């Protein structure tokens, strides 16, 4: 019983951190806060585990959406990529909503600038 009392907090911490671990965006092209000299050719998103993308919006500093061909996906994956149109100089925001395999709805956001 003495050992159970000593290890209960350790076990609680371990299991709570496992349960609270969610999938995150691991890499993007362009990267978050990138300062680019020219328009990127692609938007690529890489996640730590499989996700199901529900929505990805791409907008300029005026809030106008950039059409890049996103369509919600039925199957899960960890790597997504789209070709981009020629982008003008300015600031851009990419926002995404996705479900991890654990069923949690999550959001991520990246910003970048073209000189």
UniProtKB/TrEMBL annotation:
It holds the Pfam family CopC. Residues 1-21 form the signal peptide. Keywords: Copper, Signal. The keyword Signal applies. Transmembrane segments: none annotated. Residues 22-114 form the CopC domain. Gene3D superfamilies: 2.60.40.1220. InterPro entries: CopC_dom, Cu-Rt/internalin_Ig-like, Ig_E-set. The keyword Signal applies. This is Copper resistance protein CopC. It comes from Alteromonas arenosi. The lineage of its organism: Bacteria, Pseudomonadati, Pseudomonadota, Gammaproteobacteria, Alteromonadales.
């Amino acid at each position: 019983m003495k050992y159970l009392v000593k290890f209960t907090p350790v076990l609680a911490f371990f299991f709570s951190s496992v349960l609270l671990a969610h999938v995150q965006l691991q890499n993007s092209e362009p990267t978050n806060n990138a300062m680019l000299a020219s328009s990127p050719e692609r938007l690529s998103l890489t996640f730590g585990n499989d996700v199901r993308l529900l929505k990805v919006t791409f907008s300029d500093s005026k809030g106008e959406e950039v059409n890049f061909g996103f369509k919600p996906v039925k199957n899960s994956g960890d790597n997504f990529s789209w070709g981009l149109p020629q982008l003008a100089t300015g600031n851009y925001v990419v926002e995404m909503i996705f479900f991890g395999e654990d069923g949690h709805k999550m959001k991520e956001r990246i910003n970048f600038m073209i000189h």
